[in-house]
Specification:
The chain folds into 3 domains: about 45 residues; about 170 residues, Glucose Permease (Domain IIA) (Distorted Sandwich); about 45 residues, Roll (Membrane-bound Lytic Murein Transglycosylase D, Chain A), CATH 3.10.350. Strands 2, 5, 6, 7, 8, 9, 10, 11, 12 and 13 form a 10-stranded antiparallel beta sheet that branches. With about 300 residues, it is of the alpha+beta class. β3 and β4 form a beta hairpin. It is globular, with a radius of gyration of 30 Å. It has 6 helices and 18 strands.
Length: about 300
Protein backbone atom coordinates (compact mmCIF):
# COMPACT_ATOMS: atom_id res chain seq x y z
CA UNK A 1 0.00 0.00 0.00
CA UNK A 2 2.83 2.42 0.81
CA UNK A 3 4.40 1.95 -2.65
CA UNK A 4 1.15 2.86 -4.43
CA UNK A 5 0.84 6.06 -2.41
CA UNK A 6 4.47 7.03 -3.09
CA UNK A 7 4.21 6.27 -6.85
CA UNK A 8 0.99 8.18 -7.25
CA UNK A 9 2.33 11.29 -5.56
CA UNK A 10 5.53 11.10 -7.63
CA UNK A 11 3.70 11.00 -10.98
CA UNK A 12 1.46 13.87 -10.02
CA UNK A 13 4.45 15.95 -8.99
CA UNK A 14 6.27 15.49 -12.34
CA UNK A 15 3.35 16.49 -14.50
CA UNK A 16 2.08 19.39 -12.47
CA UNK A 17 4.56 21.03 -10.18
CA UNK A 18 8.02 22.58 -10.07
CA UNK A 19 11.10 20.90 -8.57
CA UNK A 20 10.63 22.73 -5.27
CA UNK A 21 7.08 21.61 -5.02
CA UNK A 22 8.17 18.09 -5.89
CA UNK A 23 10.49 18.01 -2.86
CA UNK A 24 7.62 19.06 -0.60
CA UNK A 25 5.42 16.28 -1.96
CA UNK A 26 8.16 13.67 -1.52
CA UNK A 27 8.51 14.70 2.14
CA UNK A 28 4.76 14.37 2.57
CA UNK A 29 4.80 10.91 0.99
CA UNK A 30 7.42 9.74 3.49
CA UNK A 31 5.24 10.95 6.32
CA UNK A 32 2.33 8.98 4.90
CA UNK A 33 4.56 5.90 4.65
CA UNK A 34 5.35 6.16 8.38
CA UNK A 35 1.68 6.47 9.26
CA UNK A 36 0.80 3.41 7.17
CA UNK A 37 3.72 1.45 8.64
CA UNK A 38 2.69 2.29 12.21
CA UNK A 39 -0.88 1.30 11.40
CA UNK A 40 0.20 -2.08 10.00
CA UNK A 41 2.42 -2.82 13.02
CA UNK A 42 -0.30 -1.92 15.52
CA UNK A 43 -2.89 -3.99 13.64
CA UNK A 44 -0.75 -7.10 13.27
CA UNK A 45 0.86 -7.17 16.74
CA UNK A 46 -1.94 -7.07 19.30
CA UNK A 47 -1.17 -7.34 22.99
CA UNK A 48 -1.23 -10.99 24.05
CA UNK A 49 -2.04 -12.15 27.58
CA UNK A 50 0.05 -15.23 28.36
CA UNK A 51 -1.45 -17.68 30.85
CA UNK A 52 0.63 -20.13 32.87
CA UNK A 53 0.77 -23.76 31.80
CA UNK A 54 -1.30 -25.22 34.62
CA UNK A 55 -0.79 -28.76 33.29
CA UNK A 56 3.00 -28.58 33.59
CA UNK A 57 3.23 -29.95 37.14
CA UNK A 58 1.25 -32.36 39.33
CA UNK A 59 -1.19 -33.12 36.51
CA UNK A 60 -2.69 -36.50 37.42
CA UNK A 61 -6.23 -37.57 36.53
CA UNK A 62 -6.12 -40.73 38.64
CA UNK A 63 -5.92 -39.20 42.14
CA UNK A 64 -7.96 -36.56 43.93
CA UNK A 65 -4.88 -34.93 45.46
CA UNK A 66 -1.71 -35.10 43.32
CA UNK A 67 0.12 -32.69 45.68
CA UNK A 68 0.57 -35.08 48.63
CA UNK A 69 4.36 -34.72 48.68
CA UNK A 70 4.29 -30.92 48.41
CA UNK A 71 4.82 -28.88 51.59
CA UNK A 72 3.24 -25.42 51.53
CA UNK A 73 4.52 -22.35 53.33
CA UNK A 74 1.84 -20.42 55.24
CA UNK A 75 0.33 -17.91 54.96
CA UNK A 76 -0.82 -18.57 51.38
CA UNK A 77 -1.44 -15.75 48.92
CA UNK A 78 -4.48 -16.21 46.65
CA UNK A 79 -5.10 -13.71 43.84
CA UNK A 80 -8.11 -13.17 41.58
CA UNK A 81 -8.44 -11.11 38.40
CA UNK A 82 -12.21 -10.83 38.75
CA UNK A 83 -14.33 -9.47 41.58
CA UNK A 84 -17.07 -12.06 41.00
CA UNK A 85 -17.32 -15.78 40.29
CA UNK A 86 -19.87 -17.66 38.21
CA UNK A 87 -22.46 -19.39 40.37
CA UNK A 88 -21.97 -23.17 40.35
CA UNK A 89 -25.77 -23.61 40.20
CA UNK A 90 -28.36 -21.69 38.21
CA UNK A 91 -30.56 -20.65 41.09
CA UNK A 92 -30.48 -19.18 44.59
CA UNK A 93 -27.71 -20.84 46.61
CA UNK A 94 -28.75 -22.43 49.91
CA UNK A 95 -25.82 -23.79 51.94
CA UNK A 96 -27.07 -26.80 53.91
CA UNK A 97 -23.76 -27.87 55.46
CA UNK A 98 -20.63 -25.82 55.94
CA UNK A 99 -16.89 -26.41 56.00
CA UNK A 100 -15.98 -27.83 59.40
CA UNK A 101 -16.27 -30.73 61.80
CA UNK A 102 -19.29 -32.92 61.09
CA UNK A 103 -20.42 -36.27 62.53
CA UNK A 104 -16.97 -36.80 64.02
CA UNK A 105 -15.25 -36.26 60.66
CA UNK A 106 -13.82 -33.29 58.71
CA UNK A 107 -16.13 -31.85 56.03
CA UNK A 108 -13.73 -30.18 53.59
CA UNK A 109 -16.23 -28.23 51.53
CA UNK A 110 -19.77 -26.88 51.59
CA UNK A 111 -23.03 -28.50 50.49
CA UNK A 112 -25.38 -26.49 48.27
CA UNK A 113 -28.97 -27.65 47.90
CA UNK A 114 -30.24 -28.68 44.47
CA UNK A 115 -32.56 -31.05 42.65
CA UNK A 116 -31.10 -34.01 40.78
CA UNK A 117 -30.64 -32.91 37.18
CA UNK A 118 -29.85 -29.26 37.93
CA UNK A 119 -26.96 -27.96 35.79
CA UNK A 120 -23.53 -27.34 37.33
CA UNK A 121 -21.19 -24.60 36.06
CA UNK A 122 -17.48 -23.72 36.34
CA UNK A 123 -16.78 -20.83 38.71
CA UNK A 124 -13.71 -19.64 36.73
CA UNK A 125 -11.71 -20.34 33.57
CA UNK A 126 -9.60 -23.46 33.80
CA UNK A 127 -8.84 -26.99 32.64
CA UNK A 128 -10.64 -30.15 33.76
CA UNK A 129 -8.12 -32.30 35.63
CA UNK A 130 -10.55 -34.99 36.77
CA UNK A 131 -13.94 -36.18 35.57
CA UNK A 132 -14.47 -39.58 37.13
CA UNK A 133 -16.00 -41.51 40.00
CA UNK A 134 -14.23 -41.21 43.36
CA UNK A 135 -14.88 -42.90 46.67
CA UNK A 136 -17.31 -40.88 48.77
CA UNK A 137 -17.68 -38.04 46.28
CA UNK A 138 -19.26 -40.16 43.54
CA UNK A 139 -19.16 -38.61 40.07
CA UNK A 140 -16.71 -35.75 40.47
CA UNK A 141 -15.34 -32.96 38.28
CA UNK A 142 -12.16 -31.13 39.35
CA UNK A 143 -11.24 -27.93 37.49
CA UNK A 144 -7.79 -26.43 37.91
CA UNK A 145 -7.68 -22.64 37.56
CA UNK A 146 -4.93 -20.23 36.53
CA UNK A 147 -4.38 -18.80 40.04
CA UNK A 148 -3.48 -22.21 41.51
CA UNK A 149 -6.91 -23.06 42.91
CA UNK A 150 -8.88 -26.16 42.07
CA UNK A 151 -12.67 -26.26 42.44
CA UNK A 152 -14.36 -29.60 43.06
CA UNK A 153 -17.94 -30.42 42.04
CA UNK A 154 -19.09 -33.72 43.60
CA UNK A 155 -22.12 -36.07 43.79
CA UNK A 156 -22.99 -35.41 40.13
CA UNK A 157 -25.52 -37.54 38.24
CA UNK A 158 -23.99 -36.88 34.80
CA UNK A 159 -20.77 -35.52 33.31
CA UNK A 160 -20.80 -32.66 30.83
CA UNK A 161 -17.03 -32.47 30.28
CA UNK A 162 -14.07 -34.81 29.99
CA UNK A 163 -10.56 -34.68 31.37
CA UNK A 164 -8.16 -32.16 29.77
CA UNK A 165 -11.05 -30.02 28.46
CA UNK A 166 -10.37 -26.28 28.61
CA UNK A 167 -13.43 -24.58 30.08
CA UNK A 168 -14.34 -20.88 30.29
CA UNK A 169 -15.94 -19.27 33.31
CA UNK A 170 -19.58 -20.37 33.44
CA UNK A 171 -19.04 -23.49 31.32
CA UNK A 172 -21.47 -26.37 31.79
CA UNK A 173 -19.82 -29.20 33.75
CA UNK A 174 -22.62 -31.70 34.29
CA UNK A 175 -25.77 -32.42 36.26
CA UNK A 176 -26.13 -32.41 40.04
CA UNK A 177 -27.28 -35.50 41.84
CA UNK A 178 -26.76 -37.90 44.71
CA UNK A 179 -23.93 -40.21 43.59
CA UNK A 180 -21.39 -41.46 46.11
CA UNK A 181 -21.88 -41.09 49.85
CA UNK A 182 -24.57 -38.38 49.79
CA UNK A 183 -27.58 -37.93 52.05
CA UNK A 184 -29.99 -36.37 49.60
CA UNK A 185 -29.23 -34.56 46.37
CA UNK A 186 -26.82 -31.66 46.71
CA UNK A 187 -23.62 -30.22 45.28
CA UNK A 188 -20.55 -30.77 47.40
CA UNK A 189 -18.30 -27.84 46.48
CA UNK A 190 -14.69 -27.87 47.62
CA UNK A 191 -11.91 -25.36 46.96
CA UNK A 192 -8.31 -26.59 47.16
CA UNK A 193 -4.96 -24.86 46.73
CA UNK A 194 -2.20 -27.29 45.77
CA UNK A 195 -3.92 -30.10 47.64
CA UNK A 196 -4.91 -28.12 50.73
CA UNK A 197 -8.61 -27.47 51.29
CA UNK A 198 -9.72 -23.91 52.05
CA UNK A 199 -13.02 -22.93 53.63
CA UNK A 200 -14.91 -21.73 50.51
CA UNK A 201 -16.79 -19.11 52.53
CA UNK A 202 -13.51 -17.44 53.44
CA UNK A 203 -12.87 -16.76 49.74
CA UNK A 204 -16.41 -16.25 48.42
CA UNK A 205 -19.76 -14.85 49.50
CA UNK A 206 -22.44 -17.33 48.52
CA UNK A 207 -25.06 -14.71 47.79
CA UNK A 208 -26.92 -13.64 44.67
CA UNK A 209 -24.08 -11.23 43.77
CA UNK A 210 -21.49 -14.05 43.52
CA UNK A 211 -18.87 -11.89 45.21
CA UNK A 212 -15.20 -12.69 45.73
CA UNK A 213 -14.24 -11.24 49.12
CA UNK A 214 -11.11 -9.54 47.72
CA UNK A 215 -8.82 -9.74 44.70
CA UNK A 216 -5.94 -10.59 47.02
CA UNK A 217 -6.43 -12.77 50.08
CA UNK A 218 -4.00 -14.34 52.54
CA UNK A 219 -4.88 -17.74 53.97
CA UNK A 220 -3.63 -19.01 57.34
CA UNK A 221 -3.86 -22.61 58.58
CA UNK A 222 -7.04 -21.74 60.47
CA UNK A 223 -8.93 -21.58 57.16
CA UNK A 224 -7.53 -24.92 55.97
CA UNK A 225 -8.43 -27.05 59.00
CA UNK A 226 -12.07 -28.20 59.45
CA UNK A 227 -11.45 -28.86 63.15
CA UNK A 228 -11.53 -25.11 63.77
CA UNK A 229 -14.97 -24.70 62.18
CA UNK A 230 -18.50 -25.94 62.77
CA UNK A 231 -20.41 -27.37 59.81
CA UNK A 232 -23.73 -26.16 61.25
CA UNK A 233 -22.93 -22.45 61.25
CA UNK A 234 -20.83 -19.97 59.33
CA UNK A 235 -17.53 -19.04 60.93
CA UNK A 236 -16.80 -15.45 61.86
CA UNK A 237 -14.98 -14.33 58.72
CA UNK A 238 -12.54 -11.44 58.60
CA UNK A 239 -10.53 -11.60 55.36
CA UNK A 240 -6.78 -11.03 55.65
CA UNK A 241 -5.85 -8.62 52.87
CA UNK A 242 -2.09 -8.29 53.38
CA UNK A 243 0.76 -10.52 54.48
CA UNK A 244 1.25 -8.27 57.50
CA UNK A 245 -2.35 -8.85 58.59
CA UNK A 246 -1.96 -12.59 58.09
CA UNK A 247 1.20 -12.76 60.21
CA UNK A 248 -0.35 -10.61 62.94
CA UNK A 249 -3.39 -12.90 63.08
CA UNK A 250 -1.15 -15.80 64.04
CA UNK A 251 -0.58 -14.14 67.41
CA UNK A 252 -3.54 -15.63 69.24
CA UNK A 253 -5.44 -13.86 71.98
CA UNK A 254 -6.36 -15.83 75.08
CA UNK A 255 -8.98 -15.12 77.72
CA UNK A 256 -10.30 -16.99 80.74
CA UNK A 257 -13.86 -18.30 80.87
CA UNK A 258 -15.41 -19.37 84.17
CA UNK A 259 -17.88 -22.22 83.79
CA UNK A 260 -21.45 -21.28 84.79
CA UNK A 261 -24.48 -23.39 85.77
CA UNK A 262 -25.90 -25.17 82.71
CA UNK A 263 -22.72 -24.77 80.65
CA UNK A 264 -21.53 -27.48 78.31
CA UNK A 265 -18.58 -27.48 75.94
CA UNK A 266 -21.04 -27.04 73.09
CA UNK A 267 -22.67 -24.02 74.71
CA UNK A 268 -19.33 -22.42 75.61
CA UNK A 269 -18.15 -23.02 72.05
CA UNK A 270 -21.24 -21.38 70.57
CA UNK A 271 -21.25 -18.36 72.90
CA UNK A 272 -17.57 -17.61 72.37
CA UNK A 273 -17.46 -18.36 68.64
CA UNK A 274 -14.74 -20.98 68.95
CA UNK A 275 -14.80 -24.68 68.20
CA UNK A 276 -15.02 -27.44 70.79
CA UNK A 277 -11.81 -28.82 69.31
CA UNK A 278 -10.04 -25.53 70.04
CA UNK A 279 -11.27 -25.48 73.66
CA UNK A 280 -10.13 -29.07 74.18
CA UNK A 281 -6.75 -28.49 72.57
CA UNK A 282 -5.92 -25.37 74.57
CA UNK A 283 -7.10 -26.85 77.90
CA UNK A 284 -5.77 -30.37 77.25
CA UNK A 285 -9.13 -32.04 77.86
CA UNK A 286 -11.25 -34.50 75.87
CA UNK A 287 -14.54 -33.76 74.17
CA UNK A 288 -16.38 -35.95 76.66
CA UNK A 289 -14.68 -34.40 79.69
CA UNK A 290 -16.89 -33.35 82.63
CA UNK A 291 -16.66 -29.63 83.35
CA UNK A 292 -17.58 -28.15 86.76
CA UNK A 293 -19.18 -24.89 87.81
CA UNK A 294 -16.44 -22.38 88.62
CA UNK A 295 -13.86 -24.20 86.51
CA UNK A 296 -11.59 -21.90 84.53
CA UNK A 297 -11.11 -22.59 80.84
CA UNK A 298 -8.77 -20.86 78.42
CA UNK A 299 -10.45 -19.47 75.30
CA UNK A 300 -8.08 -18.85 72.40
CA UNK A 301 -9.11 -16.79 69.34
Amino acid sequence: MKFLITGFLFLVSISTFSQGRLNDILKASKAIELIVKDSIVSDTLPEVSVRPDIKAEYWDQTVYNPYKELKLQFPLQIQFKDSTYFSPIGKHKVVTSRYGWRWGRPHRGIDIDLITGDSIFAMFDGVVRMARYTSGHGRTVVVRHYNGLETVYAHLSRYGVKENDTVPKGAYLGKGGVSGNARGSHLHLAVNYKGVSINPEYLFKFNDNNTIRAKELWVTKKWTQPAFHNSRRQSNIKPLLTEEEALASLIKQRSIYIVRPGDTLSRISRNNNVTIASICEVNHIRRNAVIRIGQKLLIEK
